[in-house]
Amino acid sequence: MSRCRKDRGFTLVELIVTVTIIAIITGLAIPLTRNTIKREKETDLRIALREMRVAIDKYKEASDKGQIQQTLDGGGYPAKLQDLVDGVPQVGQVDKKLKFLRRIPLDPMTNSTEWGMRSVQDDPKVNSWGGQNVFDVYTKSEGIALDGTKYSEW
Known about the structure:
Blueprint: H1 2-7, H2 12-64, H3 82-86, E1 88-89, E2 97-98, E3 116-118, E4 136-138
Antiparallel strand pairs: 1-2, 3-4
């Protein structure tokens, strides 16, 4: 009868080994999960930047083709990002607007729709917007990507 009582349960060594193995697995999984989340945000950032840059290029192309009215100091680029969403009147069309974006994408790094902008007249190395037009966009996040570059330089 006393022999049956000894065989029940785990020994202290077995419990310590089990807890140690679980701690090691958890310790490896947490950084992997963080990197996966960061990588997904970086992918979302690249997609958002590409979407806006393509829309800006299409705006410029429509301006160069004379489909929309060009402003004198704009150089054929939109005055603000919201113009890509709201649309601009087409030349020769009374009630038709040419739209380039459905909405301004959310910046996954800052969780806002506030993007840094550059105009044609701005110095490309400076992160300040002159306000004349929107030639390029970038994130306002000061974070560092997995590849070591700054998000604001993408």
